[in-house]
TrEMBL record:
Ribosomal protein among keywords: no
Protein name per Swiss-Prot or TrEMBL: aspartyl aminopeptidase
Organism of derivation: Dunaliella salina (Green alga)
InterPro entries: Peptidase_M18, Peptidase_M18_dom2
Gene Ontology MF annotations: aminopeptidase activity
Family: Belongs to the peptidase M18 family.
EC number: 3.4.11.21
Cited NCBIfam families: PRK02813.1
Keyword Zinc annotated: yes
Pfam families the record matches: Peptidase_M18
Low complexity biased stretches: 123-141
Reactions this protein catalyses: Release of an N-terminal aspartate or glutamate from a peptide, with a preference for aspartate
Catalytic EC class: hydrolase
Region (Disordered): 122-143
Length: 438
């Protein structure tokens, strides 16, 4: 029945994903069909050097022809070179862009360019296996070479050391190939893609690892330390591997039952004793748009993790969870800051309320302050990454002792709380219950 002390974050970011059929030719160019994932600042993807990364499903076929028993496997691939680009239309052909705004059609004006058709024909490989025969009235299954440009498949095959016909399917994301860097005159900023939310995923995971690095690190631990990194937060978390799925509750249930040897109520007691730090990036005060923040709740760079508050439960923070998390940091001299959205602006959300409602555990929403959220290139403060790591490390190492000192559900002693007077209900006439029921 002891609690789980958890940091939860998400690993996905808004990006461009390849469609199931990517093959497209326009005006002599090989184009790639894509779709947008999440709520990205898509105009920032134009005129960028773009590569590919993701998962490829492969059939192992040592012979010339795959057999029915050929094993399947997945492989991860990262093509970290500029093979794709979405070029902007020159201002000479859209003179009003600076007055009317940039308003591309995301279906017709947002396909990355892969190659010219003429160059792609040079040295194009042929399929290595014959097309499967089809019975009368049954169409032959569509091959990958029918759905994707052969030069794209050739590139994937070369990267993975397989034949083109061994590729069964893939899930590929378009990504910026420019590496992350430290910048600013005093080298105080981080410029990088996908800070939301790999920054919090990294600090949460590193803090967990380092909190358990010595042989006696868990000698007096009163709970179970854990980190949970989810997919699909940017599209609502409703998936098998998202925060709305069952994996976190299932994991807690199995561990609690195993450690309690099946004792009745152990899982429920564990959940009630648990504490979740929902760690997702926060909105820093933008110097060019200061009116977008409540002036008294505007997070700044390098001032510590941001505690996120929302009375309408878009964030799961309350006074108890916020006080405990603040105190964990205060005991080690670690600062933090507060954020609440303006009353006249909508509020985003995180995995915090989703997990708080499904698990029934205490939750606080926190994050590193950043700018350019959901751009292809985001930024945050260097110091904040170290502060976040130290605060989460302190949470893992110190929280169980601090938590034991606070009981918000117990009544105070009788000599403090006094006696509750039972005031008569003068508007009620006669007995409430018939003393002589028939």
């Amino acid at each position: 029945g002891n609690g789980f002390y958890m940091v939860g974050a998400h690993t996905d970011s808004p990006c461009i994903k390849l469609k199931p059929v990517t093959k497209s030719v326009k005006s002599g160019f090989l184009m790639v069909n894509v779709e947008t994932y999440g709520g990205g600042l898509w105009h920032t993807w134009f005129d960028r050097d773009l590569g590919l990364a993701g998962r490829v499903l492969i059939r192992e076929s040592p012979g010339a022809t795959p057999s029915a028993s050929s094993p399947l496997r997945q492989a991860l691939v990262h093509i970290n070179k500029p093979i794709l680009r979405i070029p902007m239309l020159a201002i000479h052909l859209q003179r009003d862009i600076n007055s009317a705004g940039f308003k591309p059609n995301w279906q017709t004006n947002f396909a990355p360019m892969l190659a010219t058709a003429a160059k792609a024909q040079l040295g194009a490989p042929a399929s290595t296996s014959p097309a499967p025969s089809a019975s009368a009235g049954t169409p032959a299954p569509q091959k990958e070479a029918d759905k994707h440009h052969i030069v794209l498949l050739e590139l994937l095959a070369r990267e993975l050391g397989v034949q083109i016909d061994d590729i069964l399917d893939f899930e590929l994301n378009v990504c910026d190939v420019q590496p992350s860097t430290i910048g600013g005159l005093k080298e105080e900023f981080i410029f990088s893609g996908r800070l939301d939310n790999l920054c919090m995923s990294y600090t949460g995971l590193q803090a967990l690892v380092d909190s358990c690095c010595s042989p006696d690190a868990l000698a007096d631990e009163g709970g179970i330390r854990a980190v949970a990194l989810f997919d699909h937060e940017e599209v609502g978390s409703d998936s098998a591997q998202g925060a709305g799925g069952p994996v976190m509750r299932d994991t807690i249930t199995r561990v609690a039952r195993a450690l309690s040897q099946g004792e009745e109520g152990a899982v429920e007691r564990a959940l009630r004793s648990s504490f979740l730090v929902s760690a997702d990036m926060a909105h820093a005060l933008h110097p060019l748009y200061t009116d977008r923040h409540d002036p008294d709740l505007a997070p700044r760079f390098n001032d510590g993790l941001v505690l996120k508050h929302n009375a309408n439960q878009r964030y799961a923070t309350n006074s108890v969870s916020a006080a405990l998390f603040r105190e964990v940091g205060r005991l080690r001299g670690i600062p933090c800051q507060e954020f609440a959205v303006r009353n006249d602006m909508p509020c985003g959300s995180t995995i915090g309320p989703i997990l708080a409602s499904s698990l029934g555990c205490r939750t606080v929403d926190v994050g590193v302050a950043q700018l350019a959220m959901h751009s292809i290139r985001e930024m945050c403060g260097c110091d904040d990454v170290g502060i976040a790591y130290r605060h989460l490390l302190a949470f893992y190492e110190d929280f169980h002792r601090l938590d034991a000192s606070l009981d918000v559900d117990a009544l105070p002693p009788a000599d403090i709380r006094g006696t509750i007077a039972d005031t008569a209900c003068h508007h009620v006439k006669g007995p409430l219950i018939n003393p002589n029921p028939q």
